[in-house]
Design goal:
Chromosomal protein MC1; 5 strands; DNA-binding; MC1_sf; MC1; mainly beta
Amino acid sequence: MVKKFYIIRSGKNPKNSKDTEHVFTGASPRQAALKAAKRGYTNFMFRERGRRNSDGTVTIHVFKGSWKLVKYPRENKPSWLPDKIRMPVVKKVQTARVEEI
């Protein structure tokens, strides 16, 4: 598994969005989206840093995310861990290809 860097983009439309300074890592866009959702992002877009498609475009991944409180699944939890923890939930809305970043 290769660690990739995904940059969050601001804006409503993938074609008119701009990069922000927030970067999340993961082997896949979904893994980075889970990290972003756990930190409170609800509607967000990612692009992979340093990668272009063969036709010179950039793929933008659009996600909708949230988190919910769930009971910790294991019995032997650490003493400092609360009874309920945040579980991130994400859904991929679309992927878009843009020519310019």
